[in-house]
Amino acid sequence: MGTKPVAEAAGHAAADQPGGTIPRPLAERGVSMKMLQDFVRVHPEAVNASTVAVVELVVLLTREHKCSYTELPPSPLDDGTFYGPATHFVSHARACMFSDLIDVISREEEEEEDEVAKAHVDPAAPRTANYFWIDVFAINHHPCTTKCQPPPRPGAIQQHHQQQHQQQQQQQQSTADAETEVKKEAAGALGPAEANALQAVAEARAEAEAAEAEELVEQLQGVVRRCSTTLALLSPWQSPTALGQAWCLFEHMTGPGGLRYVTSRSQERDLLAHVGERHEQFMQLVSGVDIRTCRASREAEKAAMVARLQLVSAAAPPQQGESGNSGNSGGGSGTCGIEALNAGVRAALRQWLRGGVAKAVAALSQEHGPDDSRVARLRALLTAHAQ
């Protein structure tokens, strides 16, 4: 996740809603691969867009109903399989390409099909369908309900940019006005009553932001926990944007049991070709992973995330520290709290990279023979990982 969603409430009866929308509880806003294929068919320009741009498109498409995309009146092609209770949580940075999200979900479906085939399971036997929770579609990106505007034409990703720019200018002006008031107060231009009123407004705003952040974090944590798997997208693989974003790390830490780091096929090809030369870059980035120093859209949100993670980890048994890390490390010492969660993410990332190195060794050995010098260098990296 990148930008903050509005707080979500459990759905009510669809019959009570205007325009045929279908309210769904937050955890039941998973989308199927079939739904994603339909979305790309109708909006082909989304394939080569960032998820930020696709969110802007979704804002346009849902502007009339002021709901999440999953709650829109159903598509004529929806046979009842487009949406369902989420089984997979897809964690990603908003800077990633939408095509990467589609690719990792497609791979997940293909790998499951392969496993079923290898297990000689009857293809006609009932199976639990996969539904993927993607913030692009699951979140209501509209703050408060206002007067509805006419729905936009499909395929208009860039139409929203000008409106966004105007809104940003208005927000900047509002911020500048507030700063002017603060400067007046500092210069003694405000009387005692005005200064007290300004202080009260600032405190009330901070309290409201903290309460909203706590509610948001609690809701997202609930969704992740209800999913059996968290697919955490790494893009670009050697310096993933997600590892510097507090929301992404919070998602990784909330569902560690089902956490799986993934990357797109194009990124995996790059990894196999260049892991030897970019290995150290990735390892240095991983060593500094810490949710407390990550970026967040609002400090109140990061504070709420850290506080909730501390509550969850307080009851957990201490974990073995990572050698080579500062703080609780080595010598049999244990880690606890936030540092334990940071350590768990670092360990999972190193394990993921080790798997990538092993794949590169196998590919190079098959192509150039096991005695190739590049194979030897990669084997040395595998040995270093094992120590």
UniProtKB/TrEMBL annotation:
Region (Disordered): 1-24, 145-190
Low complexity biased stretches: 158-173
Keywords: Coiled coil
Keyword Coiled coil included in the entry's annotation: yes
Ranges in a coiled coil: 194-223
Protein name per UniProt: Uncharacterized protein
Organism whose genome encodes this protein: Chlamydomonas schloesseri
Source species taxonomy: Eukaryota, Viridiplantae, Chlorophyta, core chlorophytes, Chlorophyceae
